[in-house]
């Protein structure tokens, strides 16, 4: 279905049409200095296309949240844990809901991490949910910087990788990137180069004008024209717009940003006692206690659960027990460890436990431990995660007693807790010389159904120098772990996951 939306007027007065279907396949780059009308252009695009395509806006300034009032966009506050953002992004793709990810309450590095997590979760959606989505990223130079800045290298790589996936590989997954930037020179070239449609607004720096002219196929001497463009006027080029550069005047919008450009207003009348007014504090100021507090970042659910498990009574006095209540019997350490192991085994025996979050499993574990009358303090969250990772690796008692397994446990400390189960499963197979686990088994150990994500995990481990992936002459996969001096037997990457109970029977 071909849909052309009205972006404004051309120099001759004809309507400027933007082909949405073509835009979904070819992406768009918008450039212009502050005050050139970029946000106005994006708002016009979003308003005109809202009824035709799902929209996701990465909004670092909170300017686009007003779209929710008229067009029903869901506003997602960026002050959430990574697990929450992943879940929200996955459900947004599944249910085709337009949303605005508002990041204005976060610092720059937190904005980059939140946007990266959200974009990666949309990118990793299952194939059945690859519906077309217009992904608009304002201030793209912040999320895909050409060089490192004041943020950590880890945050920069994470954000740049997500933006690269969006612009380079997002088309097949239905993700159409629309990125807007103030400075082309500050935007990573591999991200900007993937756009086939361009709308260039007013800019003054020579390096930005030269890059804009190159992208539009114009002579360098024509680059001076970008200095003379008025606010809201752009030069457009691309298969969704025009086959040759055309000046476009962006039309009016129906919604407004929460913030606006500063306007001149009359100065107040001169006050006679100005010194007394400024240097004498008001009564309200004297009653204020301390500086104004900012809203704290939400705490991860897992931390709250761990704290609740350690909760003590509000008073130091022991809680009164009923007169006929029996005394709690003392429990030997061996018996306590056995009961905890049984509870953990019951939870992990559930076929769906591999696809539940650590927070949900830990909460279930605490409840079951209390029902089993396990005395003493509960197992800490860190130890619980460690034991879950070891259990999911499938290691037996004989292998667990070897020096090679002790080395594998030490190596697993180099990856995050959610990846330790996958690494230990590969290490177990390598130590025993078993067939390399399939993508399905690796995905399940990570808690997902996505075979593509399993392959990405192997690539990540290889980048970290933890293992080496290669193939035999028949094309079957082999994983070698240099620090263990061991490797798996060849295994088919696309082998189906064995049925429940089949692994245990082997």
Entry summary:
The protein contains 21 helices and 14 strands.
CATH superfamily of the largest domain: P-loop containing nucleotide triphosphate hydrolases
Q: Which architecture of the largest domain would the CATH scheme give at its second level? A: 3-Layer(aba) Sandwich
**Number of helices, counting only DSSP H or I runs of 4 residues or more:** 21
Q: In percent terms, what proportion of residues is strand?
A: 5-15%
Task: Report the span from N to C terminus.
Answer: 53 Å
Structural class: alpha/beta
CATH class of the largest domain: Alpha Beta
Radius of gyration from CA coordinates? 29 Å
Domain AAA+ ATPase: 24-310
Organism: Hoeflea algicola
Biased composition (Low complexity): 317-331
Keywords: ATP-binding, Nucleotide-binding
């Amino acid at each position: 279905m071909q849909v052309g939306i009205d972006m404004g007027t051309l120099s001759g007065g004809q309507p400027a049409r933007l082909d949405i279907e073509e835009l979904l396949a070819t992406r768009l780059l918008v450039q212009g200095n502050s005050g050139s009308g970029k946000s106005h252009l994006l708002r016009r695009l979003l308003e005109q296309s809202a009824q035709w395509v799902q929209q996701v806006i990465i909004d670092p300034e909170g300017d686009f949240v007003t779209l929710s009032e008229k067009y029903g966009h869901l506003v997602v506050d960026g002050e959430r844990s990574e697990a929450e953002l992943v879940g929200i992004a996955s459900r947004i793709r599944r249910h085709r809901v337009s949303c605005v990810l508002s990041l204005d309450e976060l610092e720059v590095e937190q904005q980059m991490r939140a946007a990266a997590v959200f974009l990666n979760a949309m990118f990793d959606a299952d194939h059945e949910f690859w519906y077309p989505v217009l992904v608009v990223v304002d201030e793209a130079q912040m999320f895909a910087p050409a060089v490192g800045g004041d943020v950590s290298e880890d945050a920069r790589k994470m954000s740049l990788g997500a933006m690269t996936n969006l612009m380079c590989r997002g088309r097949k997954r239905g993700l159409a990137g629309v990125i807007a930037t103030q400075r082309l020179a500050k935007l990573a070239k591999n991200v900007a180069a993937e756009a086939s449609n361009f709308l260039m607004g007013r800019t003054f720096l020579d390096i930005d004008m030269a890059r804009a002219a190159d992208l539009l196929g114009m002579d360098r001497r024509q680059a001076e024209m970008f200095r003379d463009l008025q606010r809201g006027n752009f030069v457009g080029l691309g298969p969704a717009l025009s086959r040759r550069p055309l000046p476009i005047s962006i039309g009016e919008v129906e919604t407004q940003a929460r913030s606006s450009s500063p306007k001149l207003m009359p100065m107040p009348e001169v006050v006679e006692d100005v010194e007394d007014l400024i240097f004498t504090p008001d009564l309200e100021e004297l009653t204020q206690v301390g500086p104004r507090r900012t809203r704290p970042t939400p705490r991860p659910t897992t931390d709250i659960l761990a704290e609740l498990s350690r909760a003590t009574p509000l008073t130091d006095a022991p809680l009164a027990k009923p007169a006929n209540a029996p005394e709690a019997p003392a429990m030997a350490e061996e018996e306590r460890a056995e009961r905890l192991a049984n509870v953990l085994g019951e939870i992990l025996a559930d076929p769906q436990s591999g696809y539940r979050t650590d927070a949900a499993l830990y909460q279930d574990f605490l409840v079951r431990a209390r029902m089993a009358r396990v005395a003493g303090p509960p197992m800490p969250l860190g130890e619980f995660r460690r034991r879950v990772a070891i259990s999911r690796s499938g290691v037996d008692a004989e292998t667990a007693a070897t020096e090679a397994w002790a080395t594998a446990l030490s190596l697993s400390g180099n990856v995050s807790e959610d990846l330790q189960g996958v690494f230990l499963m590969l290490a177990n197979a390598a130590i025993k010389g078993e067939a390399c686990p399939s993508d399905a088994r690796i995905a399940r150990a990570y808690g997902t159904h996505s075979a593509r994500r399993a392959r990405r995990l192997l690539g990540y481990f290889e980048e970290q120098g933890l293992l080496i992936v290669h193939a035999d002459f028949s094309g079957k996969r082999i994983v070698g772990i240099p620090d263990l001096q061991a490797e798996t037997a060849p295994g088919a990457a696309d082998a189906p996951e064995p049925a429940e109970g089949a692994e245990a029977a082997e």
